[in-house]
């Protein structure tokens, strides 16, 4: 029987692993801000789904959030194709859709328990209480969802490993080889949306950004191989979640906030100690060069 604390640690680790794998491709594609955009605009999808169904339970919330994430991707790409700079198109779509979601929460939703603070920060401490029975075993809904999403992410990463590797490092080569670059792009961004939505309930919008970007950025400092980067990014995400939980207990503070803080701590250690890009290696190399001369 897994304890209350155990479910929180498992759920946080699943968020870190899933976001870490997807985040590695975001870093390589220089699309870090898309994670920020999608993690905020899913709020609009959740609100619209509630306004239609008048219920906070059910798969419709997930569908609404995923729809908002995909809509964000299409709008950003459409504005970019019309000549708007990519960063500018992300900024316009992100702020507009998120602002619309905030306005709907404060007006149309009213007194229903769907508040902005929870959407931004999440509350992973509540995750173990909302359970379902799966194969005779009780498991939190959020944990089961993250397990499913992780399986989907692993399937697509393995199925399109070579294609996404080429499109991430050399899009021009991918086009010359006849790969469906745009189809692969939208498939990947759909995966980002699904991952973001699955993590949204556990850690909130702001913390999803930290989990998607920082572990991957840390892994990027340690290796030049994509396969190793994916493994390291997932490991750093899980490590940050586990350490963050115990830091939160120690400080008596927000669990999701502490998890995000630990992603920054892992990045700081990587930035200092990385053998190829770290500060220490930059200090040591000139001395080694002098000795060699």
TrEMBL record:
InterPro entries associated with the record: ABC_BtuC-like, ABC_TroCD
GO cellular component: ATP-binding cassette (ABC) transporter complex
A Pfam family annotated for this UniProt entry: ABC-3
Keywords: Cell membrane, Membrane, Transmembrane, Transmembrane helix, Transport
Spans through the membrane: 6-28, 35-53, 59-79, 91-114, 134-161, 173-196, 202-222, 229-248, 254-273
Record's bilayer topology term: Multi-pass membrane protein
A Gene Ontology BP annotation from the UniProt entry: response to zinc ion
PANTHER family: ABC-TRANSPORTER METAL-BINDING PROTEIN, METAL TRANSPORT SYSTEM MEMBRANE PROTEIN CT_070-RELATED
Name of the protein in question: Mn2+/Zn2+ ABC transporter permease
Organism, scientific name: Shouchella clausii (strain KSM-K16)
Top-level taxonomy: Bacteria, Bacillati, Bacillota, Bacilli, Bacillales
């Amino acid at each position: 029987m897994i304890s209350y604390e155990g479910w929180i640690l498992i759920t946080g680790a699943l968020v870190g692993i899933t976001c870490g794998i997807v985040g590695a491709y975001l870093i390589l594609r220089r699309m870090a801000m898309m994670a920020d955009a999608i993690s905020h605009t899913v709020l609009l999808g959740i609100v619209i789904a509630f306004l239609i169904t008048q219920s906070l339970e059910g798969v419709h919330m997930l569908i609404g959030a995923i729809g908002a994430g995909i809509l964000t991707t299409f709008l950003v790409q459409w504005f970019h194709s019309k000549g708007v700079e990519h960063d500018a198109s992300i900024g316009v779509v992100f702020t507009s859709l998120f602002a619309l979601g905030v306005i709907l929460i404060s007006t149309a939703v009213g007194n229903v328990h769907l508040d902005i603070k929870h959407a931004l920060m999440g509350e992973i401490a509540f995750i173990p209480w909302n359970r379902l029975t799966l194969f005779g075993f009780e498991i939190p809904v959020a944990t089961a969802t993250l397990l499913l999403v992780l399986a989907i992410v692993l399937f697509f990463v393995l199925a399109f490993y070579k294609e996404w590797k080429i499109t991430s490092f050399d899009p021009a080569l991918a086009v010359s080889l006849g790969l469906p670059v745009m189809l692969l792009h939208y498939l990947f961004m759909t995966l980002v949306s699904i991952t973001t939505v699955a993590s949204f309930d556990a850690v909130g919008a702001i913390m999803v950004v930290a989990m998607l970007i920082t572990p991957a950025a840390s892994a990027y400092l340690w290796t030049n191989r994509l396969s190793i980067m994916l493994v390291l990014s997932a490991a750093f995400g899980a490590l940050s979640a586990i350490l963050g939980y115990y830091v939160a207990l120690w400080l008596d503070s927000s669990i999701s906030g502490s998890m995000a803080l630990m992603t920054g701590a892992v990045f700081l250690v990587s930035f200092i100690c990385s053998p190829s890009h770290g500060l220490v290696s930059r200090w040591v190399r000139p001395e080694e060069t002098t000795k060699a001369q």
